[in-house]
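Notes from the 1:1 (GR / supervisor)

We went over the backlog. Supervisor wanted to see one worked example end to end before approving the batch request, so GR pasted a single chain during the call. The sequence is below; no edits were made to it. Supervisor asked that the structure be written out right there so they could see what the output format looks like.
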Amino acid sequence: MIDDEMLARKLEGFSAERDWNQFHTPKNIASALSVEASELLEIFQWTRGQHGWQEIDAESSVRKHTEEELADILLYLIRFASLAKIDLQQAALAKMEKNALKYPVEKNRGSDRKYNE
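Structure output shown during the call:
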C-alpha cells in the first residue's frame, strides 16, 4: 500500500520533471481541487439523490469515472498539503476530535441538521 508521503514524493518528481512547480501556488492547487470536486459532483448531478451506493458497483462506467475524479482530488490534496508542510493525517484526526465536541452524540444521533440545540 502506498502512503501519503510516498504519493507526495511521486507527485514532486512528476511535477519537477515537467517544470510545473512554478505553477503550484496555493491558489492554483486550491482552484484545481475545487474543480475536481465539482467534477465528482457532476457525475451525480441529475440523479436527484435517488441513487445510492449500488450505482457505483464494480462493473459500472459510473464507478470508473468516480475513481478517476476521486484520484484527482486526492492527488491535488496531497500536493497542497505537501507544499504547505501540513500533516494531513494529523490534521484529519484533530478535525475529527473538534467535530466530536461540536456534534455530541446525544444531540446529533440520527439527525442531519447542521446545528442541534
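Supervisor's comment: Residues 96 and 102 are 10 Å apart (CA to CA).
Batch request approved.
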